[in-house]
Amino acid sequence: MLVLFLGDGRNAIERLEVVGRSLWRLLCNMFSSGSNGSLLSGKSIKLVTFGDGVTILATVITFRMPSRLSKRISMGSMIIGWLTRSRESNNFSCCSRRDMDFTLYKKQFGLLDRSAEMEMFYYLVFGALAAVVAGLELSRNNKDRVTTSAPFNSFKNNYLLVYSLMMAGDWLQGPYVYFLYSQYGYGKGEIGQLFIAGFGSSMLFGTIVGSLADKQGRKRACVTYCITYMLSCFTKHSPQYKVLMLGRILGGIATSLLFSAFESWLVAEHNKRGFEQQWLSVTFSKAVFLGNGLVAIVSGLFGNLLVDTLGFGPVSPFDAAACFLAIGMAVILSSWTENYGDPTESKDLLTQFRGAAVAIASDEKIALLGAIQSLFEGSMYTFVFLWTPALSPNEEEIPHGFIFATFMLASMLGSSIASRLMARTSPKVESYMQIVFAISAASLLLPIVANFLVAPSKEKGGSISFTGCIQLFGFCTFEACVGIFWPSIMKMRSQYIPEEARSTIMNFFRIPLNIFVCIVLYNVNAFPITVMFGMCSIFLFMASILQRRLMVIAESHKSKPQDWTALKERDTEEESSNI
């Protein structure tokens, strides 16, 4: 009996027809006249339904073996099957039990019940998270809401529209970058070099270009992001390695602008228009809820529609991303005003870098904030590379897209919690983030604990294991912490980073992050996965300790942050005295 699983997709019938025709031609060639035998008859592929809701396709093929064996045999129950739902009766149809022993089939492979259970498990996790998120959003009371003005709401909605379009352009590309490179025939080593080039570009060129936003204008920097990322998308049409490398370099530059220029423009414009400082938290939490949650889920589904359902190919998500970026750029050009970091002075880039370094060295709060951000984001980006092998160590079949959507839903849950916390006067963001970092550290310890307590399975294939289920809960908890982290770190940056060098300092924060990610990518196969999770957990515990230190310093310095102008004047005096 030959059993061939083709997956549980919607196009199973088409795939079965293709495979059936291929097998038929293969058998005809094997047993044709003049060869080793002859094909006598073959019944057409038939639909077979079983009582437990499983439908398969089956055919019975009869052929004559070589003449030296001089007998006919029946190649019964050649089954080309796939798992899907059915609402048919409890009896077999189109086929008798003599043709196949389905009980033996289930016992031998042990896949059907297990797959159905795991499919239900994924739905339960996703449904539970969706219910909690909906409950939190619908149960808001006055304490959880911030009273704002109509002009602010108009300003906020405009920014959220642009930010959502920008994030859609980013999220559409993510799931298909590795896949596209592999379709072009590149191996893991070459693909790894492309990814390292992207993070290295973000560290080197991105820091320079991002820092120019303070001098040349944040609006111009946001437009530059759109143009640079669109050019990166266009390079995906070429299979040439040099062109793809150029695309990764452009993508690295764009990433630095995405995570610095837009936030810098928002904070400066918010303050210039005289809105209350607390209202920034509303914009930050909504931006994370939409951009890092809802938009990510919709982008994943839209990308799947383009590639799999409509069959436009793996380049189509990049073309769609370029369209969203173009729309966002049009909104920026038509509705945003320009703002700068320090337009009163003319200084070169090195002087600007030196001034930012002075600000970091002179204010411990800024230095601590940068270290906390690097530790958490370094662990977060490492987790991106680890969760797939952690959930499928023995090549288990897991629904990557559905799990990714579940993670994004958990992130939406975190941002919803953060918006409630920041709407209240207590606890302060510096206080509750200690707990968030500790919880995130504990959640990434789960893979180590689970592998220690539960003996790992050695069976290849199948569905996610019991250990994988435990880890999935931990990973969803970590993603919820990520959802709390983003609006909270944005709020702390708006409080502690001086406006005059905001983009420059924020890009400085990304330098150790990019170095760390490049090292992890280069050595991702050198260490066991449990060691990598342990390292991430240690980093997150360190972030919790540093957050505690930041809270103590912030409470002891209730006055305003150090004056940026005074720092520059003091630095200039020191330079003059050294001449």
TrEMBL record:
InterPro entries hit by this protein: MFS_trans_sf, MOT2/MFSD5
GO molecular function: molybdate ion transmembrane transporter activity
Membrane topology: Multi-pass membrane protein
Keywords carried by this UniProt record: Cell membrane, Ion transport, Membrane, Transmembrane, Transmembrane helix, Transport
Subcellular location per the Swiss-Prot or TrEMBL entry: Cell membrane
GO cellular component: plasma membrane
SUPFAM superfamilies for this protein: MFS general substrate transporter
Predominant localisation class: membrane
One GO term (biological process): monoatomic ion transport
Keyword field contains Transmembrane helix: yes
Transmembrane portions of the chain: 120-138, 159-179, 191-213, 246-267, 287-306, 318-336, 402-423, 435-455, 461-486, 529-546
Role according to the record: Mediates high-affinity intracellular uptake of the rare oligo-element molybdenum.
Listed name of the protein: Molybdate-anion transporter
Source organism (scientific name): Tetracentron sinense
